[in-house]
Design a protein that fits this description.
Length: 209
């Protein structure tokens, strides 16, 4: 009986280790894990609200788009993959709108990297995905304030020897209704069909002439 105790103890330890690894280990890169975790945090019923930032032609306020459904995304132009993927999906959804629906929808891209994302760069970058996408920036404090209200998270990493750096950030798309209230938080990689359905759910009803 005694000779079997070490074997039983080893089995117990291995089983506990397997449970721990299965429950807590994530094989994805740390930046990916952070983005996923931040997206979950962003879904914790943020308050949203009005804001004003700098657009390519001057100040842009959320209140400017009352009566429209607004899609809001936080990212940065040097993002290698997450932002282009999300913005391409948003663009496909926007392209799926009927001609009568197009004027009722606006998309905004807020840069979380104002140090590098100048107005000129944003003006070139945002419309590349879709003409209805406007790039916005501001001071660090202004952007942090807006991000906090919408539950977005971001953190710049230490620069390398060439001064280049990445910004880890959540990747949710925020849908703001025609009254300027945050209505939905769409997770990263929501399909164009899902985004389009969410937009149409909040468009004002068409009044027959």
């Amino acid at each position: 009986m005694r000779s079997r105790l070490p074997l039983i103890a080893l089995i117990v330890v291995l089983s506990a280790t397997l449970v721990f690894v299965t429950a807590f280990w994530d094989p994805r890169p740390p930046a990916t894990v952070m983005a996923v975790q931040n997206a979950r945090l962003a879904a914790a019923k943020p308050a949203g609200g009005d804001f004003m930032l700098q657009g390519p032609q001057g100040p842009v306020a959320l209140a400017d788009y009352r009566g429209k459904v607004v899609l809001l995304y936080f990212g940065y132009t040097y993002c290698p993959d997450v932002c282009p993927t999300a913005l391409a999906l948003i663009a496909q959804a926007l392209s799926g709108l009927e001609a009568s629906e197009q004027p009722q929808v606006q998309a905004l891209f807020i840069s979380v990297d104002p140090q590098r994302d100048s107005a000129d760069r944003l003006q070139e970058y945002a419309p590349y995905f879709h003409p209805k996408l406007i790039g916005l920036s501001g001071t660090q404090d202004e952007i942090a304030s807006v991000a906090a209200r919408y539950g977005a998270r971001y953190e710049a990493q230490s620069p390398n020897d060439q001064g280049q750096y990445s910004v880890d950030h959540s990747s949710a798309t925020y849908l703001i209704d025609t009254q300027g209230k945050l209505a939905l938080t769409l997770p990263h990689a929501s399909t164009p069909a899902q985004i389009l359905a969410a937009i149409r759910q909040h468009l004002p009803p068409v009044v027959a002439k």
